[in-house]
Amino acid sequence: MLLRELRETNDPALREKLIEAHLGLVEYLARRFAGRGEPLDDLIQVATIGLVKAVDRFDPDREVEFSTYATPTIVGELKRHFRDKGWAVRVPRRLQELNLRLGTVIAQLSQDLQRSPTVGEIADAAEATQEEVLEALDSAHAYSLISLDAGTGEDGLSYHEQIGSEDEALEALEDRVSVGPLLQRLAPRERHMLYLRFFKGLTQSEIAKELGISQMHVSRLLAKTLSNLRSGLEDENEPG
Amino acid sequence: MADRVVVRIPASTAHVRVVRQAASALAALADFTYDRLQDLHIAIDEVASRILATSQPPASRLEFAFEIDGGDLTVTARGDSPVREGGQFLTKWSQTILNSVTDRLEIVSDGVAEVTFRLGRGVVT
Fold first, then answer.
1. pLDDT tens digit sequence for A88-145
2. Is the pTM value of this prediction over 0.90?
3. Which residues of chain A lie closer than 8 angstroms to B121, CB-CB?
4. Residue closest to B119 by CA, chosen among B16, B11, B31
5. How far apart are CA A240 and CA A107, in angstroms?
6. Would an 8 Å CB–CB cutoff place A57 in contact with chain B?
7. Cα–Cα distance, B47 to B65 (Å, whole number)
């Protein structure tokens, strides 16, 4: 077994080979944490660190599969990453579940009512109190709990068709000098969302429909993008 | 007579969450739609961050006063310190954002930065 051989030889090439052989597991686990406010590439990097640790620490004499051993190490590394990023507000399970349910409830109600539902309507449909609904929505922003399946609808979206008019709109901004470079750095979907909301004046539910993602997903992405822009602006424009 | 609620917080972004939570509760009372609730949060975040970013000396408290009148919520936000000399309280970008998420926007600068904005609860039929 390669891992036993590695223990005996400490051969760096072998170590490399073992790490590469398990990158699939790394990506699989990283994806489980995607959509919580950290780019997937970063997550894969963090998860890879976890894998390296697992390879270095695995004891071949213990009678467990390597993947069984590596999974909690990698997940631990990912969780630590979120904790270090200040995202790890502990969200009670009850709220997590309600939060996941709200995504569906809000989408369904918006479709049935052909408008955005009120908090009261959401609470009734989710069989929860208004307080619980507000608490769950708030927890979602503290720790972005995008459900793992949350259809991202990224396929088939042609950003390029939009970019021309978007650029014009963005350039019309007087303070493009400050915001402009930051906007350029945004992911196309985030830019597009800002454009739809603040320049085309679409509501969040209309954006959700247009992009084929849940409304809760839209509001989280918008809030996060704006907050990133703000901290970027502060870094660049507000010295001291 | 409109219901009035005032929330005063230490001037830090961490505490803005408390304002958002209060705003959510009030918006639920006023029967706001989910869309409008999110708009309200965006407006609060934007205004709070501008007050924090432009006050000189740095603000020590932020005050948000909410008034519910029928289906409308009026919010007045102010710091306790003037806008830094030569500083731009609401940038064009901030105004673009605020204009799209609120129904009315009013900026007062009488020594300290102050913004009032109003949001309707959204279409409920």
1. 445 667 777 888 889 889 989 998 999 999 999 999 999 999 999 998 888 766 544 3
2. no
3. 118
4. B31
5. 44
6. no
7. 13
